């Protein structure tokens, strides 16, 4: 696989994630866009690890996946609890976390 192809695919995935976070107001969609951006970073780590023949990028992928799994568990728990209290998943309705 060409490194430029992986770079462009990763940039497209990251761009779609940023656009989704900026445009969408649904908490679940925003949550999935954050996961998409993490997967774009993972794709770059794997592509550069394969290109340079170095396993360090694969170790970073493991750490990013661990952080993504923890973020998924905590994020979904927060979204479920906020949905139970307000009965909506619109981000504009959630001002409970404001300090």
Would you kindly provide a written description of the structure presented here, covering whatever features stand out?
The structure is a single chain. With 99 residues, this protein is mainly α. Helix content is 79%, strand content 0%. The protein contains three helices and no strands. It has helices spanning 3-23, 27-52, 56-86. Helix 1 (3-23) packs antiparallel against helix 2 and helix 2 runs antiparallel to helix 3. The radius of gyration is 16 Å and the shape is elongated. The chain starts with a helix and ends in a 13-residue tail after the last helix. The model has no long low-confidence stretch (mean pLDDT 88).
Itemize the secondary structure elements and their pairings.
Layout lengths: L2 H21 L3 H26 L3 H31 L13
Task: Name some characteristics of this structure.
99 residues; mainly alpha; 79% helix; elongated
Strand content: under 5%
Radius of gyration, in angstroms, nearest whole number = 16 Å
Main pleated sheet: none
Q: Overall pLDDT, averaged?
A: 88
Instruction: Give the low-confidence spans.
Output: none
For the termini, the CA-CA separation is 48 Å
Structural class: mainly alpha
Q: What is the global morphology?
A: elongated
Q: What is the oligomeric state here?
A: single chain
Query: Counting H and I runs of at least 4 residues, what is the number of helices?
Result: 3
- Order of helical and strand elements: HHH
Structure summary, number of beta strands:
0
Which percent bin holds the helix content? Answer: over 70%
